[in-house]
Design a protein that fits this description.
Layout lengths: L5 E6 L4 E5 L5 H11 L12 E5 L7 E5 L3 H10 L5 E5 L7 H6 L5 H10 L10 E4 L9 H8 L2 E4 L7 H6 L6 H4 L5 H14 L1 H14 L2 E2 L2 E2 L1 H28 L9 H18 L7 H21 L9 H30 L4
Parallel strand pairs: 4-5, 6-7
Antiparallel strand pairs: 1-2, 3-5, 8-9
Length: 345
C-alpha cells in the first residue's frame, strides 16, 4: 500500500524515522469506506516499524499499534497535537482486538518488534502504551522481563488517549468499558453483507433456474414467473441475518447470535408468507419456513467475529452446537423445496 500518510522523515542520528500526518486525507477517507465494504480488506496494512507524530524526543510516549491500517489511522488521528512515537507491530493486517484473540498481537510479537526496531535507541525511558483490547494477547510482565520495557494499557478507544494522558495515564471506568453502540454496529454490517458475496450471487441464481421445474417438466417461463420470488426470499433471509439482526442486537432475546438470527428469520418468514412470497402449496411454504430462518441464523452467527458481545470460546461453543442443527434444517428446507417444485403445474 502506498504510504501517502507519511509527510516526511525525522532524523534522530542513529536512524531516520517516518513522520506521519495526524489528519486523514481524502484518500484515507475513501479507503476507509472501501474497507468497510470489504474491498481490499485483506491487504489493508501498514509496514511494521517506528513512526513519529509531531516533534517527539527521547522522553516522548511510545504507542503500540496493530498494522491494520484502520487501527493505525485512528491512533495517529487521536494523537493530533501531541509529540509521540508509534511502534507498529505485524498483526498480519488484523485489527487489535481480533489479532489479540488470534495471538497475532502477542507478547512474542511486541518483544520482537521492540528488538528489531531498536526502540531503546529511540527513547531513554522504558515504557510503552498498548491498546487495552490487546491485553488478552500480551503478558505485560513477560514483555518487561524480556525487553526491560514496562507496559501500560491505554483506553479502549483511541479518542480517549489525550484525556488518558492528562489524567496521568489513569483510565476512568468509561475509558475501560467496551461498548458496541448502534452506530458502531452499522459500520460493520457492510463487511458482513459482503462476507458471502459469491454465495449471494450463485445460490439465488441456482434457485432461480430450478424454480422452472414443475411436474410437467422444465419451463423457462415458469422460472421467470416464480424465480424472482425465490430470489427475494433468499435475499431477505441473508439481509435479516447480517443486517437486521446486528442492528437490533441488544434488543433481540437470547444470548446466542444463532438464536437471535433464527428468531428474526422466523419474523422475516412470517412477513414473506403474509406478502404471498412463499408459493401456494403447503410443502413449498414449509420449505421457506425452514430456509429463511436457518440462513438468517447462520449469517447472524458470523457476526460474532465482529462483535464485542461474545468471546472466542463462546463462538467456538456456539458453532459446535449450532452448525450441525443449521445443516440439518437447511438440508430439510432444500429437499422440501425441490419436492414442492414437482407439485407445481
Amino acid at each position: 500500500m502506498k504510504s501517502d500518510f507519511i509527510k516526511g522523515n525525522l532524523d534522530i542520528g542513529v536512524m531516520t524515522i517516518p513522520l506521519v500526518a495526524t489528519e486523514w486525507s481524502t484518500r484515507d477517507r475513501l479507503e476507509t469506506i472501501k474497507v468497510r465494504w470489504a474491498i481490499g480488506r485483506m491487504n489493508y496494512k501498514v509496514k511494521p516499524g517506528i513512526y513519529a507524530v509531531g516533534s517527539p524526543d527521547r522522553q516522548s510516549h511510545v504507542f503500540v499499534s496493530a498494522n491494520y491500517k484502520l487501527s493505525f489511522d485512528h491512533l495517529r488521528r487521536a494523537l493530533d497535537g501531541l509529540n509521540a512515537w508509534i511502534l507498529v507491530i505485524d498483526t498480519k493486517g488484523i485489527n487489535v482486538w481480533c489479532a489479540a484473540g488470534k495471538k497475532n498481537f502477542s507478547t512474542k510479537e511486541v518483544v520482537r518488534r521492540i528488538r528489531i526496531h531498536q526502540l531503546e535507541q529511540v527513547v531513554d525511558h522504558h515504557r510503552i502504551i498498548l491498546p487495552q483490547l490487546s491485553a488478552t494477547g500480551v503478558s505485560a510482565h513477560e514483555v518487561k522481563k524480556m525487553t526491560g520495557f514496562s507496559v501500560t494499557y491505554g483506553p479502549v478507544r483511541a479518542s480517549d488517549i489525550i484525556a488518558f494522558l492528562e489524567a496521568g495515564m489513569k483510565a476512568t471506568d468509561a475509558m475501560r468499558t467496551v461498548t458496541f453502540p448502534f452506530k458502531e454496529r452499522l459500520k460493520l454490517i457492510p463487511v458482513d453483507i459482503f462476507y458471502g458475496k459469491y454465495y449471494l450471487i450463485l445460490i439465488p441464481a441456482l434457485f432461480f433456474i430450478l424454480s422452472g421445474i414443475s411436474r410437467v417438466g422444465y419451463s423457462a417461463g415458469l422460472s421467470v414467473e416464480q424465480g424472482w420470488k425465490v430470489v427475494v426470499n433468499l435475499f431477505a433471509a441473508y439481509l435479516t441475518g447480517c443486517a437486521v439482526t446486528p442492528a437490533l442486537l441488544p434488543w433481540i432475546p437470547f444470548r446466542r447470535f444463532s438464536l437471535k438470527g433464527l428468531s428474526m428469520g422466523i419474523i422475516a418468514a412470517l412477513i414473506l408468507f403474509l406478502s404471498g412470497m412463499m408459493g401456494t402449496n403447503l410443502i413449498e411454504i414449509a420449505s421457506w419456513f425452514l430456509l429463511v430462518p436457518v440462513v438468517s441464523s447462520f449469517m447472524a452467527m458470523n457476526f460474532t467475529g465482529s462483535s464485542t458481545f461474545t468471546s472466542l470460546s463462546g463462538v467456538q461453543k456456539e458453532m459446535k452446537v449450532m452448525l450441525p442443527v443449521q445443516i440439518v434444517l437447511a438440508s430439510l428446507g432444500l429437499i422440501t423445496w425441490i419436492i414442492s417444485r414437482f407439485l407445481t403445474l
